[in-house]
Amino acid sequence: MNAKLIAAALSLAASTAFAADTPAAAPAAAVKTVAASQAVSMAAATTLPAIEIKQDSGRTRAEVHAEAVAYLATRKSTLAEQLEQYK
What we know:
Distance between the termini: 63 Å
Helix content: 55-70%
Number of strands: 0
Strand content: under 5%
Radius of gyration: 29 Å
Order of helices and strands: HHHH
Oligomer: single chain
Shape: elongated
Structural class: mainly alpha
Largest sheet: none
């Protein structure tokens, strides 16, 4: 997918060059297009290693939920904390 995005960005940059509208800049635009296609081929040929995680390393959803329920059961509201200052 990244190679497709790079290809689209490079082709867009090559096709929208400011100097591409003038006839004298036509060879420069062709060189840019060739350079862009070479960059796309290089990006497509480059492969990155994939990271595979076989087991969960974090807490389960049930553990997070239990912690949230325990917190809500024992918490004090901001107003209650402010009123305790004046006791």
